[in-house]
Amino acid sequence: xxxxxxxxxxxxxxxxxxxxxxxxxxxxxxxxxxxxxxxxxxxxxxxxxxxxxxxxxxxxxxxxxxxxxxxxxxxxxxxxxxxxxxxxxxxxxxxxxxxxxxxxxxxxxxxxxxx
Length: 115
What we know:
two-stranded parallel ribbon; about 10% strand; 6 helices; Rossmann fold
């Protein structure tokens, strides 16, 4: 229930400030599991821009991995999420539970907020 209130507050704050919310298409895969409330996820997705993972974006994500010295086998989704963040008009803030890996991929190009 607390998560629902936080999610609703995030959407409200973004709407009031004209901030855009975006997610990488790979994030849908990352957050889906047996316990996922799919109607709630679909509701949330209807209120954000879902950034596609294309050949061009995959190559850019691979370059982020290479520059950070990370391997795609472990960090592929993180890299596509980071690449999607870099495509957004600035300034950009990212909510993430993985500050360390996102810092390796993004440096200070995106403001990282721990959740």
